Amino acid sequence: MSVFSFNHIALSVKDVNASTEFYQKVFQLKEIKNTASDSKTRWLSLGEGKQLHLIPRPNAEIKTNKAVHFALTTRDFSSFIEHLHVLKIEYSDWLNTSNKDYIRKDGIKQIYFQDPNGYWIEVNDAILHD
Questions:
Q1: Which superkingdom (predicted)?
Q2: pTM to 2 decimals?
Q3: pLDDT value, residue 3
């Protein structure tokens, strides 16, 4: 059987420049070269060979749902929450309690917030529980 590993996530975005700026500001992601094409799609490195591809689709209808999200983990969960406060980015727990984290049954803390296109992002401290 084949073995798989995560490579990238691709998001359709209304304004590729605004979305790139958001992800660089919030997560300090480095832009990398789009080696696939000469399109206006922008690529950001998530580290360890993982990538975020932002594909411009200014006329696309983007539907979001909190259950459809991607999650990033950090050792500096509290510092990241402070960073969101500085950036004036609202976050919530799974139940939509504003500016509140949630502690899962397994002890992992998590928060949710949305990017400029409405995509849901989870940030958690699961890396501390590995």
A1: Bacteria
A2: 0.92
A3: 83
